[in-house]
Structures are given as C-alpha cells and as structure tokens.
Amino acid sequence: MKKLLLIIVLIFIAFTVTFGLTVSIRPIHESFAVRALENEGFHDIVITDRVWPFAPVQGCGLFDTTAYNAVAKNPDGKTVRVYVCLGGLFGPSPHNIWAIVKVKK
C-alpha cells in the first residue's frame, strides 16, 4: 500500500512539474505580441482579440498560453490578419517568453 501511495505521489509531482510550470495563471500582455510583430517587420498593428487560456484552440502549440489576433501591414505594405502565439515558463516575464507569428489565410 505504501508503494502504491508513493507511486501516485511521484506521478502527481512529475505531472505538476511538467505541466504546471508551463501554464500561466494570467494572460501574457499584448505588448509582447506587438513587439513580436514589429520584430518580423509588421507595422500599423492593431490588436483585435485575445485568446486565453485556450491558445491551442486558436492554432497555437500545446504549451502556448495566450494568443492575440491582430490586423497589421506586412513588410510589403499589404494589410493582413495575423495571430501571435505566446508562451512562457514560470509565468510571463520578458526573459522567458517565446512568440510565434502566423498569417491567417
């Protein structure tokens, strides 16, 4: 019985460490999405919507926690609809956030 309890506790700890640290308890601020778009050459950026905490439903990765929809001009000057997937370990901070920019078709 003690072995079973120990196994359950270890599985719980492993699950918490693996998935609990990647889930942010608050959305990542839209300024990170704007910065990611600017870094990719987009300008005249207007954030239109935020998807949190179900960013994977938007088309983002499993460990992305926040997605922003936006309208922006691409480097060629064409107005496009885009979404930015954001994620971060240990909650949002400028040092551990990743961003993926995707153009909607």
Explain this structure.
With 105 residues, the protein is α+β, with helices and mostly antiparallel strands. It has one domain (2-103). The protein is built from 3 helices and 4 strands, in the order H-H-E-H-E-E-E. Strands 1-2-3-4 form a 4-stranded antiparallel sheet. Strand 2 (66-73) and strand 3 form a beta hairpin. The radius of gyration is 17 Å and the shape is elongated.
What is the gist of this entry?
This protein is α+β, with helices and mostly antiparallel strands. The protein has one domain.
Tag the structure with descriptive keywords:
105 residues; alpha+beta
Low-pLDDT residue intervals, each spanning 5 or more residues: none
- Quaternary state reads single chain
Fraction of residues in helices? 25-40%
Question: What is the 3D form?
Answer: elongated
Mind telling me the C-alpha Rg?
17 Å
Main sheet attributes: strand count, strand direction, barrel closure? 4 strands, antiparallel
Write the layout of secondary structure elements.
Layout: H1 2-20, H2 30-39, E1 43-51, H3 55-58, E2 66-73, E3 79-88, E4 97-103
